[in-house]
Every structure is written in C-alpha cells, then in structure tokens.
Amino acid sequence: xxxxxxxxxxxxxxxxxxxxxxxxxxxLSTIKIAKNVGxxxxxxxxxxxxxxTLLTNLYERELNRIDQFDDFASVLTxxxxxxxxxxxxxxxxxxxxxxxxxxxxxxxxxxxxDTIEPSVAERQTKITSLLNEGIEQGYLKPVPINxxxxxxxxxxxxxxxxxQNHQYTRDTYPLEKIENMxxxxxxxx
Length: 189
Known about the structure:
The chain has 10 helices and no strands. Helix content is 68%, strand content 0%.
C-alpha cells in the first residue's frame, strides 16, 4: 500500500483555503480543489473522507496556527491574574488578526456553514472558561459568551482586514487602541 504524501494533503488544504478566500466557502468543491492541486478528484478523497472532513481539517489547521502564534495557549493558563489573562487573550487575538487576517476569514467562513465536528468545538472550552470566570468575578459584563467571543473576534478580524485592504495603516490605529476598544466593550466599567 502506498504511503500518503503529507505535502499533498497540505496542498489540498491550501487549495481549499484559496478557493474559500477568493470564491467563498459555498463555492468550494473537490473538483476545483483537485484542479488547483493538479490531481484527480479521487485523490482528494484518498486524503480526506469527504468535504466536511476536509473543512474540519482546514479549520483545525487554522486553530493550531493561532495556538502556536505568540504562545497563545499560555495566556489561558491560570498562573496569571484573571485580568492579565483576559487582556493577554484580547492582545493575542488582535495581534494574530493583524498578521493573519486570511486565517480568521477562513475560520469565520467555515464556522458559518456549521459543519464543525463537536471535537473541534471543545477547543473553545478554555477560552469560554476564562470568559465565564471573568463574568463570575465581576470583571466582565454578564452577557452571553458567544456575544463576547464575537465582539473580540469580529473587531480584531475587521481591523486586520482594514489594514490588509489598505483602508488605514497599523500606525493610524495602533493595536493597543483596538485592544482597549474591545476591552471597553466587554469589561465592567
């Protein structure tokens, strides 16, 4: 039996990402992916059972990139004070958004079609636990966690896209200003 080529799996994921970014997630097809990679459509299925599995793998890849960025996972440990961890979380998301806006676009697009497997959703547990702790201790506003996550994610993501699309520069609205805006939105006054 022939061993699977990991680089080919990455090329398939890269092609899927490019199609999502340029044509939208609803226009993604294994035919287009195969054409972009230069392989037969059946080869896509040799690496990914179906389109949902491919999207889940792409979603996980982007989440792994966030986890590895700036040691993001370490901001969630309880070694630091609650306010420090929440502020570090907001900083990490904002910093990642500015340097990798396409990654957040992919995450948002894949989440929008609601095909994410429950095991992937478990990754949010540490973040939601952190935010719940912030609410319980009176540091964060008592609003639904999904709204708080959306506030952090969408503002950071839009800021990254604005910079990428040359609507303004990083110097026009420094990261600290955007982080403070997000924290003002979610913190108890």
